[in-house]
Automatic annotation (TrEMBL):
Top-level taxonomy: Bacteria, Pseudomonadati, Bacteroidota, Sphingobacteriia, Sphingobacteriales
Enzyme class per UniProt: oxidoreductase
One annotated GO molecular function: flavin adenine dinucleotide binding
This protein's UniProt keywords: FAD, Flavoprotein, Oxidoreductase
Span of domain Acyl-CoA dehydrogenase/oxidase N-terminal: 6-117
Domain of life of the source: Bacteria
Protein name: Cyclohex-1-ene-1-carbonyl-CoA dehydrogenase
Length: 379
């Protein structure tokens, strides 16, 4: 067993850390306050190759491994989870889905600009009545011969207004239930496709979350991904990798809050010594560091399994379940260590605490991860 990072992985991690500290940190509080999408920063992340990290270079990707992707996600998320969710959705849900299951024409037309960061994508599965219960798709895609006619509403779509390319899941053959579901590539600006207002969220407030409405949207037949009826499996397989990315995001949020709490505890004095020298605080830091390290091992193991071409369904869900709980617990403790300062925006930890909560909700709630894990261990 090797736990060391390769030289290349260390360099990627350092590049992401430098970018996060130098480019994401300035302005992160204001972007959170005003729900401002980090447009310039996303452009820079595209130039750095963070938006199509694992895609084959022949489609403009970075050709990197999943472990490297989790390192980047961790470093970015330490500072700005609103920016890192763009990286996660674009890499794991959009680029991965297109590269793995798209046709050569789809890859040329849609994957290349997404992997280079020239465009960003969105993954549209959730609906008002179909969040966790993803088989209950109400959005319909009627087969009209040369094209499909798309009707319905999608909810909570990350990159909802900033994306150019949308992967949309919809029901074609209702009688076949999940086996009648399809996945489609829909371009922004297609007539009948409208974008609802931005959601006003508790956390990841800079990220661009919208409802999307499809009203008699014509989607060319060649924009269906995979065989007729492959859409649900497409969504499930894609989400499996997504869970590793979000687990890494949760890990980063926890590690970011921990780094701030550690630095603060060494500086802040009470009763004549740094608060870190009080056992009450030192033991908190010990627990936080241990939880983070355990989460990191789970995240890296799931990523490593994916890189080996082995099954990672169970480990990806375990990593997400555990890391998101760690993110929540550690950020609460980081606020506590900061005392009153932790409750104000300037110290960053209150934002990390708010951001942590979404990691227990999106790409499958913690309850969904427990379902996947229990089914796997009981099978
Ligand atoms: N890989 C391949 N196939 C899979 C699969 C997987 N990981 N999981 C399920 N399937 C297949 C099953 O084999 C089955 O196929 P067959 O009938 O051919 O055997 C089919 O899918 C149905 O499976 P289940 O009977 O297990 O379906 P279910 O409804 O009981 O449970 C679920 C499935 C795990 C709960 C699933 O619905 C799920 O993951 N739900 C959560 C959805 C989710 O994560 N939503 C978040 C939206 S995306 C998001 O947040 C993006 C964003 O913008 C940030």
């Amino acid at each position: 067993m090797h736990f060391e990072l390769s030289e290349e992985q260390q360099m990627i991690k350092q590049a992401a850390r430098d970018f996060a500290q130098n480019e994401l940190k300035p302005g992160v509080i204001e972007r959170d306050e005003h729900q401002k999408f980090p447009a310039e920063q996303v452009k820079s992340m595209g130039e750095l190759g963070f938006l199509g990290m694992m895609v084959d270079p022949k489609y403009n990707g970075g050709g990197m491994d999943t472990v490297s992707y989790t390192l980047v996600m961790e470093e970015l998320s330490k500072v700005d989870a609103s920016a890192s969710v763009v990286v996660s959705v674009n890499n794991s849900l959009v680029c991965y889905g297109l590269e793995k299951y798209g046709t050569e024409e789809q890859k040329e037309k849609y994957l290349k600009p997404l992997a280079s960061g020239a465009q960003i994508g969105a993954f549209c599965l959730s609906e008002p009545e179909a969040g966790s219960d993803a088989t209950s798709q109400q959005t319909t895609a009627e087969d009209k011969g040369d094209y499909y006619l798309l009707n319905g509403t999608k909810n909570w779509i990350t990159n909802g207004s900033t994306a150019s390319t949308y992967l949309v899941i919809a029901q074609t053959h209702k009688e076949l239930k999940h086996k009648g579901i399809n996945a489609f590539i829909v371009e922004k600006g297609t007539p009948g496709f409208t974008i609802g207002p931005k959601e006003n969220k508790l956390g990841i407030r800079g990220s661009d979350t919208h409802s999307l409405m499809f009203n008699d949207v014509k989607v060319p037949k060649e924009n269906r991904i995979g065989e007729d009826g492959f859409g649900f499996k497409f969504a499930m397989k894609t989400l499996e990798g997504g869970r590793i990315g979000i687990a890494a995001q949760a890990l980063g949020i926890a590690a970011g809050a921990y780094e701030l709490a550690l630095a603060y505890a060494k500086e802040r004095k009470s009763f004549g010594k740094p608060i870190a020298d009080h056992q009450a605080i030192a033991f908190k830091l010990a627990d936080m560091a241990t939880q983070i390290e355990a989460a990191r091992l789970l995240v890296h193991k799931a990523a490593w399994l994916k890189d080996q071409g082995l099954s990672y369904t169970l480990e990806g869900s375990m990593a997400k379940l555990f890391a998101s709980k760690v993110a929540m617990d550690v950020t609460v403790e980081a606020v506590q260590i900061h005392g009153g300062y932790g409750f104000v925006k300037e110290y960053h930890v209150e934002r990390l605490m708010r951001d942590a909560k979404i990691t227990q909700i999106y790409e499958g709630t913690s309850e969904i991860q427990k379902l996947v894990i229990s089914r796997s261990i009981l099978a």
